[in-house]
Amino acid sequence: SCSYQRFVSCYRCFYRLQPQLTRSIYDQFISQLQASIKEEIQEVKNEGNLEGLFSSLDKIVEEAKNREEPAWRPSGIPEQDVRSTMVPYFLKHRSHLRRILREKEEENRKVAESVLMGRDRIAELQQLIQAHQQAWQ
């Protein structure tokens, strides 16, 4: 095989002396490497709870079969992905803040009218007091 030939080319001197031992070492190395890779994959599966995640992903896929609009997929361009997610949120938040601002402005207008009416009432009362004071004198 091609990988064995590369292995032999790396250990050419050793291969010339004992070709059968070199093949045996190669076979042992490959089997241990495969076992190690399988073990690593199993550890990643166990640590990341991948089987549970895959089953939940399968459930999501099943639920999405009845949906008519397409699911969101990343475009591969981070700026576009963030924009497509964040812009609708910020627009909704902006309209919410504008509504609150209108409510506060209306509330402030009413308070300002109330203050002006209070000042007018105070001015009327002061004139009334002065009129009573002059009439009394």
What does it look like?
The protein has 137 residues and is mainly alpha-helical. It has two domains: 1-48; 87-136. The protein is 87% helix and 0% strand. The protein is built from five helices and no strands. The radius of gyration is 41 Å and the shape is rod-shaped. 0% of the residues are buried. It is found in: Chromosome, Centromere, Kinetochore; Nucleus. Its main location: nucleus. This is PMF1 factor. Keywords: Cell cycle, Cell division, Centromere, Chromosome, Kinetochore, Mitosis, Nucleus.
Strand content: under 5%
Can you count the beta strands? 0
Number of contiguous helices: 5
Q: Can you tell me the overall shape? A: rod-shaped
> Which whole number gives the mean pLDDT?
88
Count of the separate structural domains:
2
Biggest sheet, in brief? none
Order of helices and strands: HHHHH
* Rg calc: 41 Å
Which stretches are poorly predicted, pLDDT < 50 over at least 5 residues?
Answer: none
What is the end-to-end distance? Answer: 126 Å
Helicity range of the residues? over 70%
The secondary-structure class comes to: mainly alpha
